[in-house]
Specification:
Helix content is about 20%, strand content about 30%. It has helices at about 1-10, 30-35, 60-70, 85-90, 95-105, 115-130, 340-349, and strands at about 15-20, 45-50, 130-135, 135, 140-145, 155-160, 170-175, 175-180, 200-205, 210-215, 225-230, 250, 250-255, 260-265, 290-295, 310, 315-320, 330-335. The two termini are about 50 Å apart.
Length: about 350
């Protein structure tokens, strides 16, 4: 009945090229026979078979995808970790990136597995050229600049996209109290750690060089804030702007920061071929989603859902449809670098 319906629906709907996966190759004689036996006038459709596109760290079978949805292992068909069109769209993957990916991998008659890194590289390549840069801090630590005036707020120039000379610049506020990433400070750092440390200096991107003088903790020993001094001559264009500092980190002004929910998506499965053996659901990556409350620069308050943004040093992000005027929700589309590459090298060893 499927072969009967498949053939006639293609003909009735005016399909010229009926593209199927390899398992339908044995059905093609029956497909052609039905068209001939019914003496249907030309033009008639023709069936073509190609290998299905399979990606590592995922499952493509509809039967398995529906298990993930029905058993609530994902949040519906448009969960950004799903390789459905709706899931990819919600994650922030553009149609142009998917077309470029499909063009580059091509088609084949032989079953094969395409590395997920190929799709991710295609996204990074497009977003690097097109995405506007913005500042956001996902795991904030408070910085107090003790020698900076309390009420003063400067407007500094920041580049929108270094890959596009026509993208221009924007203003970002700088104040006495800032937020930086928790990963950008270590109290007892290893060698070759070029970010902030007690007694160490670092450059704040688009701004000044600061030096950490004091680490403030609560009674439980948890870090509350860092007290730093700022080299007021080190701003771009200042007398010591060219002073060599090995580390440069991003930041946002505490006085003007906006809060946003950020969903950090990663690959849904922890192994390259989850359905190769055993229960594929046992290989679900427990770290495929992390939700944080980020501090973002004020320019992101007017972000457009159709645009893609690079949160500098962090990755590429897109506004989620659940966002409202009172609360922005961001989905991480892809990181700036491939964190799975190191794991792949470990497996080879």
């Amino acid at each position: 009945m499927y072969d009967w319906a498949h053939t006639l629906s293609d003909y009735i709907e005016g399909i010229t090229h009926s593209v199927c996966t390899l398992e339908f190759e044995a059905h093609r004689p029956l497909y052609d026979w039905i068209l001939s036996a019914l003496e249907l006038p030309e033009p008639r459709p023709h069936q073509y078979e190609f290998a299905r596109l399979n990606l590592t760290y995922s499952v493509m079978s509809k039967r398995k995808l529906i298990q993930l949805v029905n058993e609530k292992l994902v949040n519906g068909w448009d969960d950004p970790r799903m390789l459905t069109i709706s899931g990819l769209r919600r994650r922030g993957v553009t149609a142009s990136a998917l077309r470029a990916f499909a063009y580059n991998v091509g088609i084949t008659k032989y079953p094969s597995m395409t590395d997920m890194a190929v799709l991710e590289h295609t996204m990074r390549d497009e977003f690097n050229r097109n995405a506007a840069r913005r500042l956001a801090v996902l795991q904030p630590i408070k910085i107090v600049l003790t020698n900076y005036p309390e009420e003063k707020i400067e407007e500094l120039d920041a580049i929108n996209n270094p890959e596009d000379s026509n993208a221009g610049t924007r203003k970002i506020p700088f104040s006495r109290e800032l937020y930086i990433e928790s990963d950008d400070f270590m109290e007892t750092p290893p060698s070759k750690y070029f970010r902030l440390r007690p007694g160490g200096e670092v450059r704040l991107k688009y701004a000044y060089i600061i030096k950490c003088n004091e680490v403030v903790k609560n009674e439980a020993g948890k870090l509350i804030e860092l007290r730093c001094t700022v080299d007021l001559d080190s701003k771009s264009g200042g007398p010591t702007a060219g002073r060599k500092i090995k580390g440069t980190i991003h930041w946002v002004s505490a006085a003007r920061a906006i809060d946003a929910e950020v969903r950090l998506y990663d690959r849904l499965f922890s192994v390259p071929e989850p359905d190769a053996s055993g229960d594929f659901k046992s290989f679900i990556n427990p770290n495929s989603l992390e939700v944080v409350t980020a501090k973002c620069e004020p320019a992101l308050a007017s972000a457009h859902p159709a645009e893609r943004y690079q949160f500098e040093r962090l990755g590429y992000f897109a506004l989620d449809p659940d966002s409202t005027g009172d609360k922005e929700i961001w989905n991480r589309t892809i990181t700036l670098r491939d964190p799975w590459a190191k794991e792949a090298k470990k497996e080879v060893r």
